[in-house]
């Protein structure tokens, strides 16, 4: 009987432990906290170092974000807040969607070629455009098919896709694959300073990030 009780207690403990580990809050550390800080910093909610330590400054930034997005402003990153920020929750955080390592590397290469030097959010946004095209019936249904579609990306035409890839572009590729879409569903983007196509200028604009305008 004592053994049965001990087993039950252990199971309850494990269940509560797994629930707690799904939350980032004051005292938490690690890569998820860094991702939270990085995104909140890029959106202007957090202005301190991205150190992976969830302190009072991070909690206050989270509260500001939560208030802005109609969430309970408790300063804790639970599933709802993480979803709004664009980060995976639970066990799904252990991998970048179902993409293979070669697809992740290819996505990083096109991000590097197209958005090297852009803000980190802008790099993720270029990756998101590729993935939005994969999901759209108007484009090829694979990452490679979208990237190598004839005339689709300048970096493929001029060879910049083969340049040495910056570390941030690999991170941006993983973030895009994990579901972060700063563009709000864009399937096109252009640089207003260099774009000459009257057609691309006619597309409905969603947002601008860095030097790129993202559109439908």
UniProtKB/TrEMBL annotation:
Family stated for the protein in its record: Belongs to the SleB family.
InterPro entries in UniProt: Cell_wall_hydrolase_SleB, Peptidoglycan-bd-like, PGBD-like_sf, PGBDSf, SleB_dom1, Spore_cortex_SleB
Key word Ribonucleoprotein present: no
Cell wall hydrolase SleB domain mapped to chain residues: 117-215
Signal sequence annotation: 1-22
GO MF assignments: hydrolase activity
Domain of life according to the entry: Bacteria
Residues of the Peptidoglycan binding-like domain: 29-85
Keyword Cell wall biogenesis/degradation belongs to the record: yes
Keyword line: Cell wall biogenesis/degradation, Germination, Hydrolase, Signal, Sporulation
Residue stretches in coiled coil: none
Name recorded for this polypeptide: Spore cortex-lytic enzyme
Record gene name: sleB
GO BP annotations, alphabetical order: cell wall organization; spore germination; sporulation resulting in formation of a cellular spore
């Amino acid at each position: 009987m004592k053994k049965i009780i001990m087993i039950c207690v252990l199971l309850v403990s494990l269940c509560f432990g797994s629930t707690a580990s799904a939350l980032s809050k004051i005292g938490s550390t690690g890569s998820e906290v860094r991702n939270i800080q990085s995104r909140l910093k890029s959106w202007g909610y957090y202005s301190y170092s991205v150190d992976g330590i969830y302190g009072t400054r991070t909690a206050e930034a989270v509260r500001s974000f939560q208030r802005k997005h109609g969430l309970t402003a408790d300063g804790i990153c639970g599933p709802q807040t993480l979803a709004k920020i664009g980060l995976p929750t639970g066990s799904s955080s252990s991998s970048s969607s179902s993409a293979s390592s070669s697809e992740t590397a290819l996505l990083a290469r096109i991000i590097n070629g197209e958005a090297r030097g852009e803000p980190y959010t802008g790099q993720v946004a270029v990756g998101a455009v590729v993935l939005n095209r994969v999901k759209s019936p108007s484009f090829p249904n694979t990452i490679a098919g979208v990237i190598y579609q004839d005339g689709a990306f300048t970096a493929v035409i001029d060879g910049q896709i083969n340049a040495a890839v910056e570390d941030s572009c690999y991170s941006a590729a993983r973030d895009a694959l994990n579901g972060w879409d700063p563009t709000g569903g864009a399937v096109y983007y252009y640089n207003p300073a260099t774009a000459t196509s009257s057609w691309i200028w006619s597309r409905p604009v969603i947002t601008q990030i860095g030097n790129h305008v993202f559109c439908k």
